[in-house]
Amino acid sequence: VTHLKITAPQESPNTNGIDISASNRLYIYDSFIGTDDDCVAINEFSSYINISRIMCGPEHGINIGSLGKDGAYETVEEVHVADCTFTGTMNGARIKTWKRGRGYARKISFEGIRLINAGNPIIIDQTYVNRMAGTMGGEVEDDSLLSSGDLEISDVTYGGVTGSSSDARMVYFNCESGARFRDIVVEDVQMSSFLFWGGGAIVCGPQ
């Protein structure tokens, strides 16, 4: 998949640029994606996905997941994102899984990522709850009542991440106690922000 220009109005809800599920050995490169939701979403049972030289923005960034909704068993592995630029996005490089989910997300890398006034440059959220359902009139589970699932996130590397953030929190890992979360490497991250708050540049949750 190459040399595409994908656009959608910012007010068009939940509009992903490229949505990947149950796919393997896919290469996406040299394209511009500006939509209301994820530029690229990598979902269940996908592997060997290579993404490079993507211009992404505004709205969301490149996401693994969400995985494991309603306790489902789902897997993603061997995803490699390189030399991409995020401009004015709500998120940069993101992995999101639901509580009670089963399976794994592993062998993932984000390298050579440039962010321009982007929020949540690096984020892993193991307690993802889609609050969009509430705004659309649907029912949202109380995430405080859910126990951590067994979906493991491992062997994830972030390297060569540079640019500016719209959030003082540069790196955010939200991992519930008991959730499987290991072998995460963050190196050579050079980010700036004009925002200051008590949370710190690197935050590990939920406490």
Provide key terms for this protein.
15 strands, 1 helix, seven-stranded parallel β-sheet, mainly beta, 207 residues, eight-stranded parallel β-sheet
Mean pLDDT: 86
Helical fraction equals: under 10%
Distance between the termini: 41 Å
What fraction of residues sit in β-strands? over 45%
Radius of gyration: 16 Å
Which blocks of ≥5 consecutive residues have pLDDT under 50? 131-139
Structural class: mainly beta
What is the helix tally? Answer: 1
- Give the number of DSSP strands: 15
Can you summarize the main beta sheet?
8 strands, parallel
Query: What would you call the shape?
Result: globular
In sequence order, what are the helices and strands, one letter per element? EEEEEEEEEEEHEEEE
Keywords: Cell wall, Cell wall biogenesis/degradation, Glycosidase, Hydrolase, Secreted
Family: Belongs to the glycosyl hydrolase 28 family.
GO molecular function: polygalacturonase activity
Subcellular location: Secreted, Cell wall
SSE layout and pairings?
Layout: E1 5-7, E2 18-20, E3 24-34, E4 40-42, E5 46-56, E6 62-67, E7 73-82, E8 85-87, E9 93-97, E10 102-118, E11 122-125, H1 132-135, E12 152-165, E13 171-174, E14 181-192, E15 202-205
Parallel strand pairs: 1-3, 2-4, 3-5, 4-6, 5-7, 5-8, 6-9, 7-10, 8-10, 9-11, 10-12, 11-13, 12-14, 13-15
Q: How would you sum up this structure, described in words?
A:
Belongs to the glycosyl hydrolase 28 family. The protein is mainly beta and 207 residues long. It has 1 helix and 15 strands, in the order E-E-E-E-E-E-E-E-E-E-E-H-E-E-E-E. The strands form 2 sheets. Strands 1, 3, 5, 7, 8, 10, 12 and 14 form an 8-stranded parallel beta sheet that branches.
